[in-house]
Amino acid sequence: MRASEDAEDQGEPSARREALLTVLRTAPPPRRRGGSPLMMAPAGETADRTRLLALGAGMVAVLLAVSLGGLIVGSVSIPAPTTVAILLHTLSGGWLMAPEWRDAYEIIVVQTRIPRIILAGVVGASLGVSGMVIQAIVRNPLAGPSILGVSSGAATGAVLVMRFGLIFLGAFTLHIAAFVGGLAALTVVFWIARTGGRMTPTRLVLAGIAMSAVLSALTSLLVLTSPDPQLAARVLFWTLGGFGSAQWKLLPIPVIALTLGLAIMLLQARRLNLLMAGDESAVALGLNVEQFRRAMFVLTAALTGITVAVAGVIGFVGLIMPHIVRLLVGADHRRALPAVAVLGASFTIAADLVARSIIAPLELPVGIVTALVGGPFFIWLLRRDARALGVTK
Amino acid sequence: MTIVPGALTIEDVSFNIGAARLVDDVSLEVAPGEMVGLLGPNGAGKSTLLRTVYRINRPSEGRVLVDGEDVWKRPSAWVARHVGAVLQDMPAEFPLTVIDIVAMGRSAHKALLEPDTGHDRRLIEAALELLQLAPFAGRPFRTLSGGERQRVLLARALVQQPGILVLDEPTNHLDIHYQLSLLRFIREIGRTVIAALHDLNLAAMFCDRLCLMDRGRVAAIGTPDEVLTPVTMRQVYGIEAHMTRHPATGRIWMMPS
Lengths: 393, 257
Known about the structure:
Chain A is mainly α and about 400 residues long. Chain A has 16 helices and no strands. Chain B has helices at about 45-55, 75-80, 100-105, 120-130, 145-160, 175-190, 200-205, 225, 230-235, and strands at about 10-15, 20-30, 35-40, 60-65, 70, 85, 165-170, 190-195, 210-215, 215-220, 240-245, 250-255.
């Protein structure tokens, strides 16, 4: 290799070299207006694109399969064909499949199971995309949504309401309290990280960790000093998460938040890529890093806050899914973000399925399942990273 | 349309952090197509000065002009289209491939949602081939050697298509073979270059002019022959030096004694 380089370096510049240099000096042709704004893989070759399409189709198939599984399995056993028939009937607005089943079955499937799966999917997708963006913001692939302190803040908010019986905002008081708690924690983390001017990734992470520790302690204190012996059990829902409260009227806000949030992130995908280059390089590549990081921080925090408000703190989804997705499709956010949404949704739906069936008719908090799967995976990642660093250093 | 080398003017620039004056009233003009080497001992303010050009450090006083426009009054994307920087930032945290990183150079040219076009791909491929990186295109960046990484970052700055290149210690961690081929390549592409360099003889060999900095100020500026003298070596580096000429190139050559 060196011999050929030497020949090229020291010899007369070849015609090929001259041609390549000319390419680099050629400005882009004038921008075509109204061209199709389709997103393409960077410098993608056809083989690469085919592979990506196949991967995408596979991921969607997995999502559909686990959703169907979640629909069929439950504490009340409904024959699988009946469940599918009810689903088709509902989806077609009563046009397909004449109802030959018990009304109770239809109520269970339509009023309980379908919204539960949608909620689990939306929460998983939200956690996945939030996790991916947060990792880019703090430029640390070992960060996750909980790093911002939003999750613990939300749990504390919910526990405060339960502990003191502050049900003053009606049925959604708990959800509102959780959201407000999350945002309050975020504001403090934000303020700590910004002290002294620049908001650096390290400061953000450290502020988030400190905040989470304090809030977890506070939550435990509230629970342990409570006169209500049942409180500990009810608090579990917030600290370990669950989709048991799913109902149709709970869905609009998380669905809208996910749709908007993901749309904004996809619009900013190129800039998110630049964050991975390092702060100084990102500026040199044309990004207003400070401002962009702040905006993305608020966006992911809001998304995480809403997630926690509807389903409690579900760990490891936002930490692990981005890794798996990067292994599959690479780190470019233009492909990784849609992929992590689909994979995150599949993972939480599957985890919920396990949580419901392992000790049926009782339910495990879904956070236990995600942690049992995610924890070991995380440890494996750490060890693999340590080994990889050991090789290059 | 052809990308032409830009003009860089650093005009009475000072930069303070608190009470410390890291750059003190520096003025420097780099003409289109010229390569100027920024020299000086550690802590002389070379990197700090370069940071005012690619918009990290806002000058406390003075202005930085690119093609007559104040970089601190233009949007960051405009600056990125005119000034490319090769820094010591190594994006090794994420499994980015070489092509992912080089493609980042096109960002400042892109509107929202605009896909990579055939032109972008031709640029990226040309840069990869010129820097002998084509075989590494799909490889994760973090598996590359120091020299390969440095070339990837240069390729990224090239597809940015700037008229001016800012290089902060571009030959760091490179063996002598790659130091030479990198600097030769940088001369060959015909852009305006300002580079912080440590090796005085390499600087004398490749740069049109040198700017020697000492404790934030300009100690000497001019052709290599004017800047590299026994007097400046004693003043700035505190060393006794003997000056001679390279027998083949005729460029000035500093020998410490």
